[in-house]
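for ur thesis appendix - Suppressor of IKBKE 1. copy paste whatever u need, i formatted it the way the template wanted (i think)
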Amino acid sequence: MSCTLEKVLSDARTLLERLKDHDTAAESLIEQSSVLSQRIHCMKEVGNALPDKYMETIPGYQELSKSKPHILLTQENTQIKELQQENKELWLSLEEHQYALELIMGRYRKQMLQLMMEKKEMDTKPVLSLHEDHAKEMQSKLERICEMGQVMRRAVQVDDQHYCSVKERLAQLEIENKELHDLLAISKTVLKPQQEEASKPETEPKPKVIDKE
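the 3d part is after this line
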């Protein structure tokens, strides 16, 4: 019995240490989220503060204005999604550990109660049945949380696959658009000399002079 109690106490200590680690990780995620939101806010303020005329004088501004906001938004959205997913997984893991700790403590209380009742020679069946019902309830809750975690992970995986396919399609369309622009520029350079040559007036042929003898 003492060996079993020592194992229960050791498991409880291990779970408490894991809960502390998860609390620290959750606080770190909250700090990262706040820093990320501040960065987005500062970027918006800087973009609004610069005058349009000054920005238009910068070489390559038009190309940057087309590509850079899209790239920045994609990066920020990806980071936010990763932080949200990590936060959800941490909360699920935290709940799993809490219910597991509750199960361990319930078994510990049951064993302690058995020891006390054996010493006092009392009927332990009613109390033990209550503890068993409570343990079964905790076990069912833990199983439901595990199922929720699996469903959430599958949903996130499907969402990531859809996001990657959309991103890949967008990159493909951007490449096709650039190639079409290049082809249009090439066709203009080829057709321009032909149009200029066609627009020149045709010179009339000079009449031949016949010498009269």
